[in-house]
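Re: Re: token formats

Sure, here are both.
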Amino acid sequence: MNRREFLSKSSTIAGAGLVLGAPSVLGAAGSANDKINVALIGMGKQGRVLFEAMSNIPGIHFQAVCDIWDYNLNSGAGKVRALQKHMPNRYTDIDELLEKEKGLDVAIVATPDFWHSPHTVKCLDAGLHVYCEKMMSNTIDGARAMVHAMERNKKLCQIGHQRRSNPRYRYTLDHLINNNKICGTIVNINGQWNRAVSSSQDIQYKKSLAIDPARLKQYGFKDMHQFMNWRFYRDLSGGPISDLGAHQIDVFNWFLGCQPKSVFASGGNDFFKTREHFDNVMAIFEYDSAQGPVRAFYQVLTTTSSGGGFYESFMGTEGTIKTSEMASGSAIYRESSAPLWDDLVKRGYLRKKAAPAPAKKSDGIASYASAAPEEFAIPGVLNKQPHQNHLENFFAAVRGEAKLNCDARHAFESEAPIFWVNPSALQKEPIIFTPEQLQV
């Protein structure tokens, strides 16, 4: 995406007060040959988020829905019926769905992490293109199996690192960091996802809606609490560092264009004492990037939302870019010693923000030994749903109109270091990566 396309798709439309995207799936579809038949595998919270994002994309027909919980299955099917005016076929078992459904093109996999790899591999082996939520798997071997299945079947497999299709991120990388090098030399990266304790509580359910114990056991859950809270368990997920941290650490690796050479992590159950995964994790990655050495610090907390929520901050000798999915969480700062950015502002690459008020003498010791950095912003506002651009890229690739922004192989290369954060924290030791630890 070039600067003109980004600006035309953001500021112009935002200025008109419109939401990007087509209003109706079937109404916007072209001929029958344009229709893409989709199976929705997993209709829990994340499955519903993806469905809502897809509801604005033309030419999609939701043919079948699968979920082991009748509550999710029926509510998800109801949402599909409300959108496309007829009920999709419903299944509790993916094998039965793949055996009976004819004419499917695509599967959207939004099941718990430990099912991502088995479900994705089944669908790829059945000849479907797959969009699967991140992390790819709860194990690095599970992620490897997905890459092998994608390449063995010569099908598309996009992993849900949606920032890779976000125009704000792509514009920042392509035009501000790479082409205009406004950060100078990046020497440090800082990222976080801080979530409030109130948003990290056990997920509850109505006892009358509980799944039959035999069905829970069949699909790998010991009880209903574990089914609702699978992210707490080491055999079922990677915990907060993969559930939340994977978003930002993927951006670290994507923007630098390389994998880290080591990780040293610390973690603990500092508040949620009985959970298997750490509620508080900090990790330091070291990189030998093309521009030189870079150190990156990442923290994920499930005990406080303070400190700015979630973002990634790329800090260089001439400027810092703070990126986030939320425009309000993004900012760009010029070091006082860096060349002026007036030309970039004049050409529309940046928008200068008002200078901060000088600190009062009563504030105590001055915060800056030199002048405070000037603050800038990216012009324009994006108001699509967070996952929509990434799904649009996937369906455009299915139609042969685009290349995937995050196929399984590239996602694996970015996710591989994340699998080693918890082992480092458990061992209380740094891990110097070997090629075998990071390669498919």
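Second one below.
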Amino acid sequence: MRFPPHAPARRRLEGVAVHLLALLLALVILTPVVWLLISSVSSTADLTSLPLRWWPGTPDLSRYAALLSVAPGSPGAAFLLALRNSLLVALGATGLSLLVAIPAAYSFSRLPGRRAGLLYAVLATYMLPPVALVLPLYAVLARAGLLNSVYGLALVYCTILAPFATWLLKTNFDAVPLEIEESAQIDGLSRWGVLGRVTLPLALPGLSTAAVWAVLLAWDEFFYALLFTSTTSAKTLPVAIADFAAGRAVDYGLICAAGVVAALPPILIGFLLQRGLLSGLSAGAVKG
């Protein structure tokens, strides 16, 4: 950190304070992650000893090997099946939600009319506590034969993701100049053509932001997954990891290793799309 020689003392103090607060924030965020990584390679004796050993004597990577095992009945088989289910549910729910949210957001943005109240009604469904929707959703899934199914769970997640994606995309569509769309219509494009060939490419940061947030929300969701799935064939990662703590002899290192592996796909997606994520959030922050 460098300041010009002529910088006033107050400016120097403000700069130091900002950097100290940023360092404190980084410590608060990263400390649990670092402890998760250390615990995942610590032996059971290190994790249960008193006083607690903050650093393992010998790193133990056997938990990661166990999670990649496909032997029937092993923790790895359940974990890998749950990983597949989480991918199916998160990507399926995100795709379905964007298919609904894109035309809905475009309609709210370009053809508001009396639909403004409907947008707030859509947002109100997002604000409802999940427990309020459990009984209706359970009844619908039971009637459709989709209980204990990854497809049923993906449909349930659409009720969470579609309102959020609609709101986020609308704010980004609002930022696209109307003159560009009108020029495209004069050149002969239909309304759907304008949406697909003009508006969506210009709102691509917002679209990637909505996709990333939808995947993360579906990936981490636990409440509905716990209630609507009961067998290994349908459980997602949060429920499968919680099951590791259900036995009499709990392997805390295995739970931590599963947490580390489960966090890798969202981190990778966020890293690859970080530029679009920041642009989309900035656009959404300045538009009402």
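The CA atoms of residues 137 and 156 lie 7 Å apart. The chain has two domains: 9-59, 69-277.
- S.
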